[in-house]
Amino acid sequence: MSTPLRLALVQMNIEAGNPEANFAKMLSRLEEAAALAPKPDLIVLPEMWNTGYALTEIKSLADPDGARTKEVISEFCRKHEVNVLAGSIAQSRGGTVTNTVHVFDRTGAEISEYSKIHLFQLMNEHLHLESGDRPGSFDLEGLPAAVMICYDIRFPELARKLALEGAKILFVPAEWPHPRLHHWRTLLQARAIENQMYVVSCNTVGESGGTNFFGHSMVIDPWGEVLAEAGEEEAILSAEVDLGLVDEVRGRIPVFADRRPAIYDN
Ligand SMILES: NC(=O)CCC(=O)C(=O)O
């Protein structure tokens, strides 16, 4: 067994179009999470926590270059000596807005930035946001990790690419609503089982513009077993994972060794 990683997932209600309220809530939830005993190694936030899906006003609401997010969360990480995967934010740069995750280590240094590759047309993302074009692998204190955002989980090719790049744990900040709870649970478990890795998803809750976000943030192990799952209210979900289990599962069922990419990769 390797060193366990303690996780805390902030499942929160986001006020669409109100970054001030969302920053205040996010910071107080981060404080709560950091005060848990035992203290988490990594705190995870949900998708678009600064603005929600206020897409028609997104250009004026988005965080320019992510500067405010970086300053506030980096300072928090330094103060509490904790890593934070800062969900995603609406971030503006040169007239475009992206749906972007920043990851910070315990010293407050930014260690990764990933912008959502697949924009969700059903919620009009493609009309207001620019998509990213670089997969989100990163190193978390020596642990091979990766991030995808919400709708991205419908694309198994991306998760497989991240696994092939070495990821043993996949983080999924999300803002995923009813009525697709069945899709959410099934897709997350499928990504964990087929790639034999941990999947850690942090969703939002609450109603916004007639859409109901259902929570059910989850921590799933490389066998596809659900280690922890939140309900439909605000919560801080905690769990402990051991990435040594990934090697064990990959050894028991050698999916990666048995692949035949010459036949089906294109
Ligand atoms: N924010 C999103 O990407 C939502 C994705 C979603 O709801 C889906 O069904 O896919």
UniProtKB/TrEMBL annotation:
Keyword Transit peptide carried by entry: no
All residue ranges annotated as the CN hydrolase domain in the record: 5-243
MF GO annotations: hydrolase activity
A Pfam match: CN_hydrolase
The keyword NAD appears for this protein: no
UniProt KW keywords: Hydrolase
Family from the record: Belongs to the carbon-nitrogen hydrolase superfamily. NIT1/NIT2 family.
Name of the protein this chain belongs to: Carbon-nitrogen family hydrolase
